[in-house]
Amino acid sequence: MKRQAAFALFFSFFATLAAENLAVVIGNSDYNPKTGDLPSAASDARLVAEILAGAGFQFPFAPETLVSENLTAESLRSGIRRNRTRFQDANLVILYYAGHGAQVKNDLIFLGVDAVVPPNASDSMLLSEGKLFASIVPNLKPTNGVGMLVIFDACRIGSTAGQGSINYGDDVGVICSTQPLQRADNAKDKVSSSVFTETFAQAMKDRKTVRESFELVSQRMRRETDKTPAFYLEPTSRIASFKFPPTTYISRSPVQKLNVSATRP
Q: Which of 44, 59, 118, 180 is deepest in the core (most CB within 10 A)?
């Protein structure tokens, strides 16, 4: 019995080592006129994707382009359906989202580029046009391994946005670029990057842990913007101590700093 347990532990250990690190990186920039475009969302996503690719992450949604740009809710569902088993077998999954977003109660909302959401949208409209992260995360979360990290660079508008913790499970960490009811900063052009994403990407490149990365982002945002990021993590989670792998990332072009007077609607 002891020998069987030892073999099970041995094979479990090497299975974890062999498991993939996967990333879903979404940049939604080109919305309809009523919702409004976000010029820099795709640029933010490309910066994150290039660094994760250099660190060995695989991109099931977009193996060639890395970034999934201008997704609708249906294209997101389709990507999840095609790759569900692969996500379940992964070591770590990172979901990065830059685009229009919202929050109803204690759940984040993905807004596809086909969503029609004016600035004064009601919570019922947000729920109708968007997709709750509570229905996304369970389908991307690994069964074993380290867990999952959600990075949400989007607004958290919504009249009932909760002040409590966002909790998608013990093995899921969530980092948001704003507090509830706040709008996210957004650059006015397609080549700039937000303070939040630029700093987090640099921390990944420097092989910081997830918690160290969040602390660096918080320090810089307090100095340079009027926004405060948020980190939701259960005490038992291993995500906080995960250190990003070495990266071969070489910047293709200099990243311009954000014009912080602009906000992501």
A: 44
Dist CA 57 CA 144 (whole Å)? 17
Cα angle, residue 151 at apex, residues 146 and 152 outer, rounded to 5°? 150
pLDDT tens string for the chain (265 positions)?
444 444 333 334 334 445 899 999 999 999 989 899 998 899 999 999 999 999 999 999 999 999 999 999 999 999 999 999 999 999 999 999 999 999 999 999 999 999 999 888 899 999 999 999 999 999 999 998 899 999 999 999 888 877 778 999 889 999 999 999 889 887 666 667 889 999 999 999 999 999 999 999 999 999 999 899 999 987 778 899 999 888 775 454 433 333 333 344 4
For residue 107 the two structure tokens come to 């759940």
C-alpha 83/C-alpha 78 separation (Å) is: 9
Residue type, 68: S
Contact 126, 110 (CB under 8 A): no
